[in-house]
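## retry 2 of 3
previous attempt timed out at serialization; input unchanged, resubmitting
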Amino acid sequence: MATRSPMAMSLLCRVLLAVAAAAAAAAGDDRGKIGICHGRVGGNLPAPEAAAALLRQNGVTRARLFLPDPAVLAAFAAAGIDLVVGVPNENLTFLASSGPDGAARWLQSTILAHAPAERVRYLAAGNEVLYSNPFYAASLVPAMRNLHAALAAMGLDGKTRVSSAHATSVLAASYPPSAGAFDAASLPVLRPMLRFLADTGAPFMINAYPFISHATDPANVQLAYALFGAGGAAPAPVRDGEVEYTNLFDATVDAVVAAMEKEGFGGVPVAVTETGWPTAGHQAATPENAAAYNAEVVGRAARGVGTPRRPGVPVEVYLFDMYDEDGKPGEEFERHFGIFRADGSKAYDINFA
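## retry succeeded, writing output
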């Protein structure tokens, strides 16, 4: 990779930021719309039709599906909901080796047979592969390229974009945000992926959970810093050069931005494909804290405030999770991220406009 001076890189990033902000304003950028994740690891979940209707009743027109379940695809598409559709990790090897023709057959039979292409906003190829399933890492970018080539052959280039969702552990450094840098072991995958995202206009997808950062390291991640200032005395801002941070959400997004800038891809947008706050299972997991966190995420997305490093550039966000999922493994709080109860009532007071 060619090297650039820090001054040149800073100027380039400022130019790209200005162009992105101007393009967003001119095009009426809709990335500020909020989406909700629809997990299915539970034994008491409403039918897909009921879930889709509930989203529409609450003004939500975007959802992330972790798996291309035919019944869920059909129900959500019929309700007019735009989708992020997960490509299962275990399908990546086939998609990487089968070429564009094999990817096209997979798309037609697995997704497009159940949902029209105009409802599929993104394909998320794998979920947290570099963190949880490194066996598939070598297949990730080839699979993404084949899926994109198949979409382009169908006339869907620029309409349905392909990316991959990452855990925040993809960062080796994140404090202060300007020091953000990717884990060196992941760079052989991330560098060609970033080139692909830049070429196709797709976002870098990140799953960000300030709650988990607080729960695992409360001494260094204050509750109020994770909660946008709620939950206690306002934290002292984190000063980082010319900007300051008052919350971990912004700091996490901007650490990813800084890491991309270091690799020469400062113009790639960021989408937060999972974030949320649980209502039980930990002393900080309460309905009040969940309401405070998610309401702030929704409000910031709706206002298009961006982040300190990218002010005025909307961050597309998907809240986790639509319902509690009682079948999820791990800590107790993992099963309590639901915004809605199974009967359709809200677990806490929140609006999505």
